């Protein structure tokens, strides 16, 4: 299992004194050791992909960088984060965002074909101007040329990390966190672009090209960088549904059809709408033209420049492969395409059904329940402590089928707009929690304690892994203590009266002086 309780809680902020005493190199090495212990698989390229506790895959260095960013990055409400899967229009959206935000300091040439003499794109590639958390800012050497605290607003950053694993400060509700611009791409075109990119590096390393059949198999199994693809897209889609003022969701194909409209939406979203003078002067079209593939690929910074990443220098030209919509048809067989389409339909259909306008009908809608039941039935399974199969949810936790289908926390519970509702969470010592979960029913032979410990450490317990469960609610408590109350079972046992008072305050029903004098608190605390 990835986390140990002591290691995780000191890293994640439960032990603030221990965290403050940890140096950056020590923190980085701690996470590197942790990722090295994760399950690993072969991916598209010649490097291992490690499986994060949240269920996504990545190479060691960027996964470590993402975890260090989670521990270290302090977001501002004015920050803007570009989020994408690799090879999904990342370079283009970075270019459009930078050119839009900085259009007054660095005006784009409004005459088609004219040179942008003083524009930063002449000397720096988009990935140098809008840097990745996991590849550039939080590396082993912490290769940050400028102190992030000294950067003027709005600061622009980027990431390939799934929404569930973004730095806590980015998604925090108190303070407001920051804004996120997400771009998704057709899964088949995304795969082919990834496959071409990976084969370029396989050739560099003297390896045979990866057959497209193998690439499709890996993709459908979720074994691609920062994938599975569907989990990544749905994570940001759900975040967009919960708070469209905070998460902007673009589709690459729609951007290609009408880039100017998307530049306008982007400007509105970041609080910098185009003025009537800019509209009349052609500024929107000038930004589109400046950031076009044809224009950017001719820039000196693209042709001869290189971007320093955690894993080495990469020529800027490597990022500029013409992103043709529908190019997958030149590489995938009809059967391969059908297989990917079937998975996409199953994953996205359930998500779209769940977004029905009338939430009151959700609990009684047979089609909704069946859609999720079919989806859960297709998930990987394993044996657990009891006699029922455990299914692995896309977010990395395990459960038997019925409660997984019925008990997923509704988006409205955790929504920031409207305010959602209050959550009371109780965690228990992990060893006592494990012992309480033994198999004692169904007339089966008792499960050996050694087997139970192994399953527990592998995260194969209902609604586990234990550590992910606890840390998920702990992070939510840190982000909004007025909304999420966090209790420890052992502390409740030690002073039940104090916890009853905290509980009453939290739910807005504090005890009156008459109730205190009359022994109501002690009576409730003593109730068995």
UniProtKB/TrEMBL annotation:
Q: Report the domain of life of the source organism.
A: Eukaryota
GO molecular function terms noted in the UniProt entry: sulfotransferase activity
Sorted keywords for this record are: Transferase
Gene3D superfamilies attached here?
P-loop containing nucleotide triphosphate hydrolases (3.40.50.300)
Q: Does the keyword Transferase apply?
A: yes
Q: Which SUPFAM superfamilies match?
A: P-loop containing nucleoside triphosphate hydrolases
Coiled-coil positions are none
A Pfam family annotated for this chain is Sulfotransfer_1
Q: Which residues form the Sulfotransferase domain?
A: 77-349, 420-515
Recorded hits in InterPro entries, A to Z, give: P-loop_NTPase (IPR027417), Sulfotransferase_dom (IPR000863)
Q: What is its EC number?
A: 2.8.2.-
Family assignment from sequence similarity: Belongs to the sulfotransferase 1 family.
Under which name does UniProt file this protein?
A: Sulfotransferase
């Amino acid at each position: 299992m990835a986390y140990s309780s002591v290691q995780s809680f000191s890293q994640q902020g439960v032990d603030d004194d221990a965290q403050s005493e940890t140096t950056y190199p020590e923190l980085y090495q701690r996470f590197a050791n942790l990722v090295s212990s994760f399950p690993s698989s072969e991916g598209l390229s010649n490097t291992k992909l490690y499986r994060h506790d949240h269920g996504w895959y990545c190479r060691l260095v960027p996964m470590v960088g993402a975890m260090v960013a989670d521990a270290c990055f302090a977001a501002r409400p004015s920050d803007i984060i570009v989020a994408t899967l690799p090879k999904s229009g990342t370079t283009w959206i970075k270019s459009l965002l930078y050119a839009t935000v900085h259009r007054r300091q660095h005006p784009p040439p409004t005459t088609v074909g004219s040179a942008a003499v003083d524009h930063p794109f002449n000397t720096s590639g988009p990935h140098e101007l809008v840097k990745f958390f996991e590849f550039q800012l939080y590396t082993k050497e912490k290769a940050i040329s400028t102190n992030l605290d000294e950067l003027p607003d709005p600061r622009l950053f980027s990431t390939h990390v799934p929404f569930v694993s973004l730095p806590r400060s980015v998604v925090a509700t108190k303070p407001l966190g920051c804004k996120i611009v997400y771009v998704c791409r057709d899964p088949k075109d995304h795969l082919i672009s990834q496959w071409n990119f990976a084969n370029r590096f396989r050739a560099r390393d003297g390896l045979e090209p990866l057959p497209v059949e193998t690439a499709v198999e890996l993709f459908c199994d979720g074994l691609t960088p920062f994938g599975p693809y569907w989990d990544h897209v749905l994570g940001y889609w759900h975040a967009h549904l919960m708070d469209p003022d905070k998460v902007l969701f673009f589709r690459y194909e729609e951007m290609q059809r009408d880039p100017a409209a998307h530049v306008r939406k982007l400007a509105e979203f970041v609080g910098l709408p185009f003025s009537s003078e800019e509209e009349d002067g052609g500024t929107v079209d000038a930004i589109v033209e400046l950031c076009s593939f044809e224009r950017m690929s001719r820039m000196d910074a693209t042709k001869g420049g290189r971007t320093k990443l955690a894993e080495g220098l990469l020529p800027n030209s490597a990022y500029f492969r013409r992103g043709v919509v529908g190019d997958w048809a030149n590489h995938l067989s009809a059967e391969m395409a059908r297989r990917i389409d079937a998975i996409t339909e199953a994953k996205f259909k359930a998500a779209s059904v769940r977004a029905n306008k009338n939430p009151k009908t959700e609990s009684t809608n047979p089609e909704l329940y069946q859609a999720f039941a079919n989806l859960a039935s297709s998930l990987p399974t394993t044996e657990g402590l009891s006699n029922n199969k455990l299914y692995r949810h896309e977010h990395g936790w395990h459960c038997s089928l019925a409660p997984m289908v019925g008990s997923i926390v509704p988006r409205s519970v955790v929504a920031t707009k409207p305010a959602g509702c209050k959550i009371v969470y109780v965690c228990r010592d992990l060893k006592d929690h494990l012992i309480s979960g033994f198999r004692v029913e169904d007339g089966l032979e008792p499960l050996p304690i050694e087997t139970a410990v192994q399953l527990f450490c592998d995260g194969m317990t209902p609604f586990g892994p234990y550590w992910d469960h606890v840390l998920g609610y702990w992070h939510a408590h840190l982000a909004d203590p007025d909304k999420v109350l966090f209790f420890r079972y052992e502390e409740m046992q030690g002073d039940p009266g104090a916890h009853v008072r905290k509980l009453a305050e939290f739910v807005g029903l504090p005890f009156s002086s008459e109730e205190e004098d009359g022994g109501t608190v002690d009576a409730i605390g003593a109730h068995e």
